[in-house]
Amino acid sequence: MEVEQSNLTQEEKTWGMLSHLTAFAGFLIPFGNILGPLIIWLMKKETMPFVDEQGKESLNFQISMMIYGIVSGILVFIIVGFLLLAVVAVLEIVLVIMASVKANNGESYRYPLTIRFIK
């Protein structure tokens, strides 16, 4: 379900952007990449449909990236995992930035390669 973007307030856009950007907390705090978007989503999902949509999208992407990272970590034992870990890290950074910019512009963003755990 895509949220109507024409009537979004700047506050909704900002919270939508933060639902993506807080994933970078994972670089400082273990599981911060999931906790950051989860906290934003839980705080605002009832009052802001755009943040509900973007928060779920961000959470699904971060859970998917964690799974891909774990699989890549296991594959390190057969060398290919080193390359895969680098690809997963770069993809995560680039896609989170793209999603944050889109959300700040009031546009819904759907991450590629995402397993949709939360509907």
Automatic annotation (TrEMBL):
It holds the Pfam family MamF_MmsF. It is found in: Membrane. The chain crosses the membrane at residues 21-43, 63-96. It is a multi-pass membrane protein. Keywords: Membrane, Transmembrane, Transmembrane helix. This is DUF4870 domain-containing protein. It comes from Exobacillus caeni. The lineage of its organism: Bacteria, Bacillati, Bacillota, Bacilli, Bacillales.
